[in-house]
Amino acid sequence: MAKRKKENLKSSKNKMLFVMVLFALLWTGLLGRAAWLQLYKGADLSRLALRQHLAAELERGERGSIFDRNGNLLATSVEASSLYIRPVNVKDVGRTVTKLSKILGISRSKLKKSLSKKSNFIWIKRQLDDRAANKIKKAKLPGVYLTTEFVRLYPYNHLAGQLLGFAGIDGKGLEGLEKEFNDRLAGRKAQFVVQRDASGRRLYLDEMGREVDIRGKDIHLTIDSHLQSVAENTLVETIKKYDAKWGTAIVVEVATGEILALANCPRFNPNIFRTSSPKTWRNRAAIDVVEPGSTMKPFLIAAALKHGVITPEKLIDCEGGRWNLNGKYIKDTHKYGWLPAHKVLRYSSNIGSAKIGLELGAQNYHKFLIDVGFGRKTGLPLPGDRVGSIRPAADWNEIDLAAGSFGQGIGVTALQMAKAFLCVANKGIAKPLRLVQLPRSEEDEAPKRIFSADVAEKVLSMMREVVQEDGTGRRARISGTTVAGKSGTAQKAGKGGYGDQYMASFVGMVPGYNPEYIVVVLVDSPTVNHYGGTVAAPVVKTIMTEALAYYGKLPEKQNSLPVMAAKMETSSEMPKKAVRLNSTLKAVSGETVPDVKGMPIRRAVEIMVKKGFIPKLKGQGMTIIKQVPPAGDKWPEEKNAEIVLWLS
User: Which structural domains are found in the chain, ordered by start?
Assistant: First the structure.
């Protein structure tokens, strides 16, 4: 027994020793293997590992978005699949051609030609629809690949189309703000290492291995989508009514110089720019140089007052409506005799203006026009921003000076006019117009006094007479508030002289005392009637009234309907909700508050104002989502009762 125990103990020791030796050999082998992998094969294995997670790819980031002042999205980008092939990887040419031809509707001969090329990368079709992309994925064709690109989308279609411009298929801005801000909006190219995490998400790293964002940067405009829609819709109706060629309207906030609306008509939808005529791409407010006609007369009066040439009561002989100057006849539409200077502006006498200009002198008048912003670019970030056409004063003769005094022989843009009238509204201080809130411009010109506040007030007083008295701007009156304005009816120059077509214009400022908003409207070649006071003044009135209602500044005593007719809603490019029009109109005349939830803001404000209440607007958006008092309640008896509308 003792001997057997001794043998068993010896056997156990041998087994334990064997296990220990085995583990020692195993650990030695593992350590040796690790050392070999780390010291000798480490670099090669690291490269193999990186190939699973890192790749050198070329990709462009998403283009930045464009927003209006209230955060409404005017331009954005959406993902789309694009198809390309690598001919060297195509295994079955016949099957590939047949499948792609059936899915894409491309001829077999064209696809065969593409597949026969020696290039390693060939685009077949860019920006496919989802159905076609899914069919190609299911086909699993070797050598055929889908990649993600971004398609530019303009959610409101025509709204501010010429201003926004458009970007091409490669994501490059080609017109408008898309072109001017292309460097900011364009997504960066990922020409560096792309790392994938465990879930396959790509991380873009710079040369230092830090993660970077390749998406383009956004821009925020001063434009208000609601007022932009108002201006465009009003222009559409006016162009149609007077069978005109085109029109433009600009709305400016006086305190900031910010452009709230910049409308052009005919309208342009950048979503379908390839099917549109380049003529409709034109931002005419910045590009088209026109003779302004009588809308220049307030600046003549301001210059003459500044230099002491006239006083508002100085009498001027208007020659009975016809005056011979060096063999050229200057005419008025009415046979005026002696008029004080303020009535020269009120009745828009060309003869009276010419005589004031001749007394003022070419040098003084020319310098004044340059100082208020004519003859140079506005400084706005718009492609094609024009300097206009004002010849040096030394080249003017008496006829040139007389004609320039009532706006002929001088070329300006609508934006230059808006900037110049901003100087009048700001009591003689020239300020820059602003179109972009973010990024802020670092090159804005500093405000500069051009003429005294006293001169500015005298000019405004005369412009109030144009509208409020028996002047040429009577159709721009707004019940319950004052309006200052000036009409223009300029003969258009053609071959061999002036023809029978006209540029009708009107500039309005509201309120007439201490203006808060400026509206400039031009209508080219109206045929039914060509006078600015008839064609353009009502457009200005509608836009100004809408602006006052929208910002809660419309006077309580408002006799006329302050907003656009219901039929205009059909042409609006803003988001639409179902409007219960007939029942709503009945409710307005009843004793209970109608249900305005789901309505566009304009329609809801129209209903409240017609009943004598100016609603308080809360939130941001274009559609009513809540109201106080609720629908069905009786209308408040107090006219100053609070009506609140919440916006989506």
Answer: 79-152 (3.90.1310.10), 225-550 (3.40.710.10), 575-647 (3.30.10.20)
